[in-house]
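Quick sanity check, Alanine--glyoxylate aminotransferase family protein:
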Amino acid sequence: MPPASDDSSAPDVGELTPPTRTLMGPGPSDVHPRVLRAMSTPLVGHLDPSFIEIMNDVQELLRYAFQTDNQWTIPVSGTGSASMEAAIGNVVEPGDTMLVPTNGYFGGRMASMARRAGGEVVEVDAPWGEPLDPATVSDALAEHDPDVFGFVHAETSTGVRQPNVPELTAAAHDHDALVITDTVTSLGGVELRVDEWDIDVAYSGPQKCLSCPPGASPLTLSDEAMEKVLSREEPSRSWYLDLSLLEGYWGDERAYHHTAPITNVYSIREALRLVAEEGIENRWARHRRLAGALKAGAEGMGLEMNPDDEYWLPSLNAVRVPEGIDDGEVCDELLERYDLEIAGGLGDLAGEIFRIGCMGYSASPENVTLLIAALADVLDDFGADVDPDGGVAACREALR
């Protein structure tokens, strides 16, 4: 062994010892032990024949999770925002018009990315905490005749699930607009049928309902969407996320483009294997049942949900903050007292809601029961008008 350094300027950094948390916020969620083990698998090269087989597996499994036959289905090297930017930055060309929603934080991010891609952005209005209305979308499509229409299927900032997706996509296609859908908080946890609902492009993140560390993010494109990408008059403004170049790596050629995050591809493969073993419809049902118990517990202690039941989002529960309570103080106390993570609101709902995830491996009876008991305990100590016993009883009854 080489001698220890006596360089007094070397930083003295201890071992990595982060706390063990229960992650019930808007993401990431707890990672399944099998996924963690997969990440310790020895590395191979990103063009190794064995890794090519792994790439094939991941693509097949992603098609199952998305419920699509799209050939062009890949994990983008990066977080969910990378797959989002790959979708918008490739499909939206300079001069294109993109219609985007105003009903949440991530609709605003769609608009920002479309502008950076050179697109002209027009908005379809809906209040934060409500879904888009198909009639309003149809009117906006008729008025603006956009090239691309984007919407968020599961809005992480408001806890709203967009219903009536086929109506939205049909209206967009009547105007020859391609549809881009944000499925970051729905893939693997909430009913999503890309082909049946006629979605052209869907992007997601692995760290939510798939319970996988961020780093390889799902993306799928229809043949029509990919044809637009490959026929662009000028290339995407991002070399790294240029799908016409990535096509050479994830398509039939398997030609070098960049060094893939090999460990992250291992992890998403295992996470998607867990989805397939459980069965996608069983997984949707599990999330709805356990989030239903969480919702029952919150309401049982006297709290209100932010969205109406009709568009409640099981994977991300938006619970109204009781009057006189500071949401940040509650989140801090849950972390300090219980090692339990939830989050406050964003944007227009900052300070008004708690955002409580019920996703993937975190969606378990034990975690839901802990969350309700801990939240009731902390709110009661802070002087909120809640019924802790009623919340726990309602939660347990819903879990029977």
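Posting the structure with no commentary besides this: The CA atoms of residues 135 and 357 lie 30 Å apart.
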